[in-house]
Amino acid sequence: MQLFVDKKCYVQHIEGHGSEYFELIKEQGLEGIVLKKADSIYRPGTRSENWLKVINYQYENVLITGLRKKEFGVLLSFEDGSPAGLMEFMKPSDRKKLYAEYKKFIRTETDDFIYLDPKLKGIVKYRNLTKKGYLRIPSFEKWTT
């Protein structure tokens, strides 16, 4: 018989000054902080109301350069035309506007994507850049056209 031991994991914390600490994290360009109840225990693989992520989101102006056909996804480019990645998060009202507008800008199609002239513009929020320079977990914020 194998014995499993519930190991408690204590994570050191800073008492108070959360707002100031988060401002420092933002200045350094780091991903964010975790707010926790001081006496709470970290339990790997579970979510807890005692541990809350506060993400230092970044914002970027982007061009919409394509649509994925089978499952919702939007190809993004930076303003200089270089690829910014694939966005899968967009509010229904913004999707509605996208679907009403994109047909005017179709450049070409493949089995998987519809490629567009980069005329539709918006702002996305994201966590940071990937190793390849793409936006990590981009989500649409607002239109700029």
From TrEMBL:
- Could you name the domain of life of the organism this protein comes from? Bacteria
Cited InterPro entries: DNA_ligase_ATP-dep_cent
Q: Where is the ATP-dependent DNA ligase family profile domain?
A: 19-54
* Transmembrane parts of this sequence: none
Q: What is this protein called?
A: ATP-dependent DNA ligase family profile domain-containing protein
Q: Native species of this protein?
A: Paenibacillus provencensis
